[in-house]
Amino acid sequence: MSEDIERTIVERARNGDRTAIRQIYDNYSKYLTAICSRFLPDPMDLRDVLQDSFIKIFSSLGKFEYRGSGSLKAWMRQISVNEALKLLKKRRRETIISYSWDLPDDRVDEVEEEPDVGEVPQQVIQEMIKSLPEGYRTVFNLYVFEEKNHKEIAGILGITESTSASQLHRARMILANKIKLYKEQTEKER
After folding, report:
1. What is the pLDDT of residues 41-82, one digit of tens each?
2. Quick check: do 3-91 and 98-189 share a fold?
3. How far apart are alpha carbons 72 and 52 in whole angstroms?
4. Looking at domain 3-91, which of 1.10.1760.20, 1.10.1740.10, 3.90.226.10, 3.40.50.720 is its CATH number?
5. Fewest beta carbons within 10 Å, which of 7, 70, 106, 140?
6. What is the pLDDT of residue 103?
7. In terms of Cα–Cα distance, which of 23, 3, 27 is closest to 13?
8. What are phi and psi of 11, to 5 degrees?
9. At what angle do helices 161-189 and 122-130 cross, to 10 degrees?
10. Rounded to an integer, what distance in angstroms lies between the CA atom of residue 145 and that of residue 167?
11. CB-based contact 86:44 (threshold 8 Å)
């Protein structure tokens, strides 16, 4: 969407134009679904968060400050990520990470280096990320995709920086092993 068109649609949506509101929804719903699905693998949770996100987006459009191409997308992304995190916090008030201290039963081998993911389809990698325990998945997504540092993650989730770093390390170990197993399996099938 060009900058002029985006700015015009935002103005029209602010004034209650249903067509403009629908255009915003149609243009960004798939993108926001993909963003939120990294945090929320359950389709019901995902649907609820997307609905809450769009309600918040459209009710807050008057506060949105247009700063050029991509600013609407970034603003909507941040609202959606915040809504996903809000759901996770609500579900686990004590601490989102508390149950993830121990490695899953399928012990993970230490992996020396990051695996080459070039041969692994993007959808497979996304499913691997979704299969991580909630705490690991949340920290991994905030660090890798939202580009937050451990101090920021600690503040967002109410954990220590060292817990954030530990969760990220364990998530990477699990993913590296899943990638290794996937590659071994696909090699056998050839």
Report:
1. 999 999 999 999 999 999 999 999 988 888 999 999 999 999
2. no
3. 17
4. 1.10.1740.10
5. 106
6. 42
7. 23
8. -60, -45
9. 130
10. 15
11. no
How many Å apart are CA 109 and CA 12, to the nearest integer?
Answer: 55
Q: Output the six-digit token pair for 63.
A: 């506060």
The one-letter code for the residue type at 17 is D
Q: For the chain, what are the domain ranges?
A: 3-91, 98-189
Using the CB atoms, write b or e for 22-48: b if 16+ within 10 Å: ebbeebbeeebbebbbbbbbeeebbeb
Say yes or no to pLDDT of 111 above 60: no
Closest by CA position to 82, among listed 127, 40, 27, 135: 40
Query: For residue 6, what are the CA distances in angstroms to 28, 64, 78, 99?
Result: 12, 13, 18, 43
Residue range 98-189 forms a domain whose CATH class is mainly alpha
The Cα 174–Cα 133 span in angstroms is 10
